[in-house]
Each structure stands twice: as structure tokens, then as C-alpha cells.
Design a protein that fits this description.
The protein has about 250 residues and is α+β, with helices and mostly antiparallel strands. The chain has 6 helices and 13 strands. The strands form 5 sheets. Strands 1-8-12-13 form a 4-stranded antiparallel β-sheet, covered by helices on one side. Strands 5-10-9 form a 3-stranded antiparallel β-sheet, with no helix packed on it. The longest helix has 15 residues.
């Protein structure tokens, strides 16, 4: 990509783009160390619903353009992420048992606390503007754009990468204090802990980061059951047991 185009992209978004996720998945992200392209990554475990599978094939056929990692220049939680399709399947057979739309408050409850991770475009050369990606004008791209606009989102503010993005490049961290009607607040003190957790997982293979929605005694019990040492609050590493986001509620 030419330097002039790179400067134009940075100017159009203030130089920072955000990947939106939630505390349902943050521990999985820290362990993987990257923002994966769609369809990749481990399955999340919800405290009430159990295993949550993100079936990208229900969103698009994955034929017109390759899997992408998605970003936006907007801090507010994209409306399309608060309007999702909910499928319940049989644990044994995998057969669908129930499906329904999960909009607004129900979607928020399922997602837990919302999170946005900020990246500088200058640090991530594989991130390009969605409207300039070849997939934008394909049939699948047009369907995504139209459905997003129906929810009130603006695809012109989206960015994509065909490669996973290193989480050590995160420069901003935003989270919602409350689950319902989430309003993201900047929590940059957490960026250092985030980087430390990613580095620890890379240096110590098999390390497990406990979900932030677990209470302290639950986290220690799970750690013991998994054979992972429980770290007291006055110890510095790993940071995930003594410096977590606010609990849901």
C-alpha cells in the first residue's frame, strides 16, 4: 500500500481502529495472543448458557472473499453486534432445538461486559478500509453492508484484515461497567496487564487465563481443578487473578 493511501486511511479514522468483543471471550483472546480472522479461535463458555459457538457460516457462505478480522473506527458498540441470532442445540446430537433473534438487552446479557480494543493503523499494515477491500462489492459483501445499514451501522467506517492481528499492538482498552445498555469507558491501565498476559501465555505454553466473570473463590476452585496454580492477590504475575474487569451486574 502506498504511503499516501496509508496517511489517508489514518486521517479518516483518527489513526485508531477498534475490534469489538466482550468479557465472554477476552480470556480466549489473551491466550491466543491475536485477533483471529472469522471462523477461527476457541469456543467461549458462558456462565449460564454453557458453550457458545460462533458459526460464521450462518452469517455468510465464506466463498466470495476470505475470512477477515473486523474493526471499526467507532467506539460505540456496533448495533449489529447487539442484534444476533440465537441457536440452541442438543448436547449429544448437535441437532437444533430452538432458534430466535437476540436483540438489545437479551444480546447484552449473553455477551456480558462489552470490550473494544484499539489499534493504530500505522502499527498494523494489513488492516485496510473495508470499502477498499475486494470483498466489499461482492454478493456476500453487499449482503453484509445492507444488513448492517438496516441495524443503523455504517460500513464505510469498517476496517478489515486478512491476517490475524497481534494483541501486543493494542494501544487502547475500553470496557462497559454495566452489562445492560453498555457504554464503553476508556480503561488504559489494563493495556499493560493485557500485554503481560499475552506474553506469559507465549512464554509458558499451556497457561490458562481464567474468565473475568468468575468470582475469586470460583476462579481458585477452577484453577485447582485444572491443575493451574491459584495466584494470591499480592503476587504480581499472572495479573489475571488480581486485576480484572468489574464483575457482571
Amino acid at each position: 500500500m502506498g504511503e499516501a493511501k496509508r496517511r489517508r486511511l489514518q486521517s479518516s479514522s483518527g489513526g485508531i481502529v477498534y475490534h469489538h468483543t466482550s468479557t465472554l471471550r477476552t480470556n480466549l483472546l489473551w491466550m491466543s495472543g491475536v485477533i483471529e480472522v472469522e471462523g477461527q479461535g476457541a469456543e467461549a463458555h458462558h456462565p449460564q448458557l454453557g458453550v457458545i459457538k460462533n458459526d460464521v457460516l450462518r452469517r455468510r457462505a465464506m466463498q466470495d472473499f476470505p475470512p477477515l478480522a473486523w474493526f471499526t473506527s467507532e467506539i460505540a458498540v456496533p448495533s449489529c453486534l447487539r442484534n444476533t441470532k440465537l441457536y440452541f442445540t442438543d448436547k449429544t446430537t448437535g441437532e437444533p432445538r430452538y432458534e430466535d433473534d437476540a436483540a438489545g438487552k437479551l444480546s447484552d446479557v449473553i455477551a456480558l461486559n462489552r470490550v473494544a480494543l484499539g489499534f493504530r493503523l500505522s502499527d498494523c499494515p494489513t488492516i485496510v478500509k473495508w470499502s477498499e477491500h475486494p470483498g466489499y462489492s461482492t454478493a456476500e459483501g453487499r449482503d453484509l453492508n445492507e444488513s448492517a445499514r438496516d441495524y443503523g451501522d455504517d460500513p464505510s467506517k469498517w476496517y478489515v484484515s486478512e491476517q490475524a492481528i497481534d494483541l501486543l499492538k493494542v494501544v487502547e482498552f475500553w470496557s462497559s461497567r454495566k452489562i445492560m445498555n453498555p457504554k464503553l469507558q476508556r480503561e488504559d491501565w489494563y493495556v499493560k496487564d493485557l500485554h503481560n498476559m499475552v506474553r506469559n501465555c507465549r512464554e509458558r505454553k499451556g497457561m490458562y487465563i481464567l474468565p473475568t466473570w468468575l468470582k475469586s473463590h470460583e476462579a481458585k476452585a477452577l484453577a485447582a481443578a485444572m491443575g493451574v496454580p491459584a495466584i494470591d492477590g499480592d503476587q504480581q504475575v499472572p495479573a489475571h487473578l488480581n486485576r480484572t474487569l468489574p464483575s457482571p451486574g
